[in-house]
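Propose amino acids for all 90 sites.
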């Protein structure tokens, strides 16, 4: 995940995280003047563009294989340190 695909997936992750932050700010502070009026349309446009990018990526047989097949990971550690909580969050 350190190559070209890793950078692409990282950019997608950052884009989604930023869109989520804007959406949560709108929900939490929409009654205040601290949130821009067009934040919902901006989030919607961002997510739609990202959806198109991911769709196009999945259509590419070679490049979309990892995204379609998922990533295998191991969550290991001592008892009662939050492994199940982390898995549930993911």
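Proposal:
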């Amino acid at each position: 995940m350190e190559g070209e695909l890793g950078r692409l997936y990282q950019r997608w992750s950052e884009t989604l995280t930023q869109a989520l932050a804007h959406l949560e700010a709108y929900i939490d502070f929409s009654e205040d003047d601290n949130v821009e009026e067009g934040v919902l349309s901006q989030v919607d446009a961002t997510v739609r563009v990202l959806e198109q990018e991911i769709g196009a990526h999945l259509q590419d047989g070679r490049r979309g294989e990892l995204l379609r097949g998922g990533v295998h990971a191991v969550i290991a550690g001592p008892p009662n340190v939050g492994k199940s909580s982390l898995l549930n969050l993911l």
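The helical segments are 4-29, 39-59, 65-69, 83-89. The radius of gyration is 17 Å.
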